[in-house]
Amino acid sequence: MLRIKSVRTGSVRSPYSLREISSVLYALQSAASMRRCKRGISDKVYAVERVNNGENQAKVSRDLGVSESTLSGWLKDKKLLFISV
Questions:
Q1: pTM for this predicted structure
Q2: Cys-Cys with 61: which of 2, 16, 55, 71 at CB 3.0–4.6 Å?
Q3: Residues 67, 70, 76, 44, CA torsion sign
Q4: For the CA atoms of the chain, what is the radius of gyration?
Q5: Pick from 53, 51, 52: which is nearest to 62 by CA?
Q6: d(CA 8, CA 14)
């Protein structure tokens, strides 16, 4: 995370507080790191099959790099996934 030591530049003082500047920088960094990645149907079917075979949901989601809530959504829609394959 980028840290700003001072908001003063010479004799001119910034109209923004250090807290405001750091919160904007944090929001920009968070938005850049949360890029959306679309998964193919084959990846989703593979994940659902792993869970159906008894593997832990948390482990499968970590292995695939998706959140547990995303994997839960795929499991809820598994009928639609298998129809489209």
A1: 0.54
A2: 71
A3: negative
A4: 22
A5: 51
A6: 6
